[in-house]
Every structure is written in C-alpha cells, then in structure tokens.
Amino acid sequence: MGRGAVGPPSRYSRRVVANVDRLRRAKGLTVGELLSRAGMTKSYYQSRAGFSLPYNTNDIEALASALGVSPEEVASPETAPRVEMRVPAGPLGARVRRLIQSQVSGEDDLLAHLEGIDPAAAESARALAAAVGGTVVLDEEVLRLITQWADVPTEYLTDYTDDAVTDRTEAELELRDAMRDAGASSIQFRALGEMSPDALRAIARSLQSRPPTA
C-alpha cells in the first residue's frame, strides 16, 4: 500500500528542526556553511526548516556529519539542555491572542505573569503574540507557561496540529465566553471531564440564548 501525503509537522519534527538550529549555533556555523558541509541546497533545506517536508534519515546523517555530532544527537532533541521547537508564528500567535481574550485580560497581564517567572519567557511570549507570519524558535516551557496561565491543555500550543485537542479546547473556550457573558461563575475546565466538544458547544449555545439578566 502506498504512503499518503505528508501531513503537518509533528511535535517531534518541530523539535528536530529546532535542534538542528541549536547545534548549528553551538558550532558557530552559518546556515550557508552548514548546507555546504551537508551537501544540501538552500531550497531543500528551507522546505524542511519551513515544515513543507520532514527530514529523512539520510538528511539526519548528513547534518550530523556536518555538525560533527552523532545522528542520535541530531534526532534526539530531548537530550538538549532546553527543549526547543521551531513553530509557525502566525497560527501560534493567533492562539495565544485567543487565550488572552478568553481570560478577559490584556497582553500586559500575561506578560506580567511570565515576567515574574522568567523574563526570557515574557520576551518570547511578547514576540509570539505579535507575530503574523514566518517561523520562530521557542523554548517549549514558554508554551507550557502560557497554557498554564490560561487553564487550557498544554497540547493546545505544543501540539497545535492535533485536531482533537484543538476542537476540544476551542469548545471549552466558547463555553468560557458564554459563561462570562451570562454572568456565570468561572470553573476549572478540567472538571468538565469527558464531555464532548459538541456537548460543550450545546451548553454554550444554551447560555447564549438566555435573555440577559436585569
């Protein structure tokens, strides 16, 4: 049976791309120098770094040789001191702005929260919230801190191509908006258990259809 089309980059794939960037910087190489050593064209590299296509095992071996490390080090981003990911800034920035909106907060509230934990995380979040295109390398901890602040699953940002996580989280956010507009008290969304996204949206519609309180 033939393989289907390559889907969106997985969380692991994004980590590998960021790991190549990290190792290249640590070795003091420019992108051009890395490509020359690895025998890759600029267009080939950019299609991988830009998530159009994934690196294959031959690529991993060529990059490892160019970087003077083992293929395992290139392919195992979890061994890095900090787990970084290269992510498309536009979609992630839109999600961060959606989370800020769901908290009835401004961007400054999120940044102040992060500043108290890690100033570098605040700077990364500021850049991500303002982004509309391109890609950016982030420490995965930044995404975890943002989702923790917003009380949503971490995977909403770290695994943004997971349709099930996206659908469930956005249904929860719709319910949160409806509860706020109806004057209902906030709840911890993990207390909703295994309610389906459709059920959450039905509750939201029910709240939205109620006449406003006097």
Q: Your description of this structure?
A:
The chain has 214 residues and is mainly α. Helices cover 61% and strands 5% of the residues. It contains 12 helices and 2 strands. Strands 1-2 form a two-stranded antiparallel sheet. The longest helix has 19 residues, at 163-181. The termini are far apart. The model has no long low-confidence stretch (mean pLDDT 82).
For the biggest β-sheet, the strand order reads 1-2
Helical content stands at 55-70%
Helices and strands, in order, run as: HHHHHEHHHEHHHH
Proportion of residues in β-strands: under 5%
Mean pLDDT: 82
Rg calc = 20 Å
Distance between the termini: 63 Å
How many alpha or pi helices?
12
Shape: elongated
Give the uncertain stretches in residue-range form: none
Quick structural summary:
The chain has twelve helices and two strands; from the N terminus they run αααααβαααβαααα. It has 214 residues and is mostly helical.
Top keywords for this entry?
single chain, 214 residues, 12 helices, elongated
Question: What is the secondary structure topology, with strand pairs?
Answer:
Layout: H1 11-26, H2 31-38, H3 42-49, H4 57-67, H5 71-75, E1 84-88, H6 89-102, H7 107-115, H8 119-130, E2 135-139, H9 140-150, H10 155-158, H11 163-181, H12 197-209
Antiparallel strand pairs: 1-2
Helix pairs in contact: 2-4, 6-8, 7-8, 8-9, 11-12
